[in-house]
Amino acid sequence: MSPALPRAVFDCNVYFQALVNEQGPAGQCVAAALDGRVTLFVSRFVMNEIRLTATDSVLRSKFRQLTDERLDQLIVNLEKVAHVVAHVPDRFLYPRDPDDAHYINLALAAKAKYVVSRDKDLRDLMDRSRPEGRDFHRRFPSLEIIEPQQFLRELAPKA
What we know:
CATH superfamily: 5'-nuclease
Number of helices: 9
Shape: globular
Order of helices and strands: EHHEHHHEHEHHEH
Number of domains: 1
Low-confidence stretches: none
CATH topology: Rossmann fold
Strand order of the largest sheet: 3-2-1-4-5
Mean pLDDT: 94
Number of strands: 5
CATH class: Alpha Beta
């Protein structure tokens, strides 16, 4: 019997970085999900945030590879493979960055093990030397917030 696929939620910045550089770590994470090596979860909030971020005029002028075609293809591909969680209860509140709380709540609703993000506010929740990190670990001991490179190591076959 093959092991269950890792269950993950990707922060919007992972999708954005994948759009900018498909070969980078974030692009490889998205490719792993599209290839069926990850059970990926999204919500309408996440899909909307991807679209809003990738169509931002300031970002578009800075990153010429951000095109409507690339964005549309990513959305179509995500709709094919990602599991959409329709109801995401607010179990976790994060006053420091309220939008980030959605990714945690989505992971909790989906029973995901990983939130993949480079967002410092999210990653600080893994720091047990911080009060919010200790509280997070106490409340959600099975949820990990990791960067794309670390997630790729988690996906690598174990020898």
